Amino acid sequence: MKLLIVEDEIKTGEYLKQGLSEAGFIVDLCHNGLDGYHLAMTEPYELIILDVMLPDVDGWRILTSLRDAGKKSPVLFLTARDSIDDRVKGLELGADDYLVKPFVFAELLARVRTLLRRGVNPTNEPTLKIADLELDLARHRATRHGQRIHLTAKEFALLELLVRRQGEVLPRSLIASQVWDMNFDSDTNVIDVAIRRLRAKIDDPFEPKLIHTVRGMGYMIDAPDGTS
Predict the structure, then answer these.
(1) 20 to 30 Å CA-CA from 152: which of 30, 176, 194, 213?
(2) Fold exhibited by the domain 127-221
């Protein structure tokens, strides 16, 4: 998942970017409000971490402009402004959470994951599809070539992540954080085992094969040209 951090304190910004990247996220970082606003308007982000006190345009104005423009990406304010009035203002302007500096990274990461699980900006599509594989999101059902495929909750979550990001190579760290809500441990093979079981259900009995291993990088789902 792709996140945007708008933070003018260089050390804080780099600390956040490193920590969130290690947790499996793709992270863009900018140090002023105008650049942050431009990125938020032009790039698709699953979450924006936004400071209030920025050197050019403050976070209040950025959030207001984003919401006025119809941008619904969840916004987490991360700021030293700690009064109750400031917290209320941020939430009333359309922020989804508000965390005061100084902060503990573990709490910030937990809040980020909670907002992402909450699905503040869910897709309007009732189904996802690639080739002849179709996911019914409302009923958590998968079918391929018209045949029902029985999946566990984790298998469905893993398949949904792959299909939503079809054509992208997803590292194990990202899969671990998004599906299992954990940091990736290189000594565990839980992800490889889950992929193997998923292949047995959605790929082995069918053609073409959709799940691909990119050695040294991770996994992806993709269909041959003309079958998407």
Answers:
(1) 213
(2) Arc Repressor Mutant, subunit A (1.10.10)
